[in-house]
Design a protein that fits this description.
183 residues; 56% helix; two-stranded antiparallel ribbon; alpha+beta; 4-stranded antiparallel β-sheet
């Protein structure tokens, strides 16, 4: 049944997006992935910071952002300030430094809540994909393209696939929570 492929691909993509979101959760260590969703208006185009600057980690608790074009330094600084990153950039005229403070217990709890929220949104997306798949196969059954027995088998397979992806999301969430608690 290659008809499942489009739906399993969507479920896999949902897990990939979840991982990207988890990587963007600032966990006390300097990680360039926290900048992935921050863009600047570079000559009229929303451009990710990574495409206009070199990002390095001089030590475990800081990031250095060195733009290739000095004129975007202020734009990068402003974008970081207006983002939900919660870090004040330090601008020395050539480089922007982000110093990651130690996580407080309160901030750690906030991050765990954020991680759980991302996981729940992903589970909802997986369930919506299952619903769309079931609707598609139900229409095929009504149009007599597949038998009722085939439909029941498909429904069972889709439920198993959904359960597998929900478990994968739970595992990813638990791993990220553990990572946050060890910092």
């Amino acid at each position: 049944m290659s008809d499942y492929k489009e739906f399993t691909d969507k479920m896999e993509k949902t897990c990939s997006v979840l991982l990207e979101n988890f990587n963007a959760v600032r966990a006390g260590r300097a990680n360039a992935a926290v900048l992935d969703k921050i863009t600047i208006d570079y000559y009229g185009t929303e451009t990710p910071i990574q495409q206009v600057a070199t990002i390095s980690t001089p030590d475990p608790r800081s990031l250095a952002i060195q733009p290739w074009d000095a004129s975007v330094l202020k734009l990068i600084e402003k974008a970081i300030l207006t983002s939900d990153l919660g870090i004040n950039p330090q601008n020395d005229g050539r480089t922007i430094r982000l110093i990651f403070p130690q996580l407080t217990e309160e901030r750690r709890k906030d991050l765990v809540k954020q991680v759980k929220k991302y996981a729940e949104e992903s589970k909802v997306a997986i369930r919506n994909i299952r619903r769309d798949a079931i609707d598609k196969f139900k229409k095929q059954q009504k149009a007599s393209e597949i038998t009722e027995d085939d439909y029941k088998g498909i429904e069972k397979d889709l439920q198993k696939c959904t359960d597998d992806y929900i478990k994968k999301i739970d595992d990813l969430c638990a791993k990220k929570e553990k990572e946050l608690s060890e910092i």
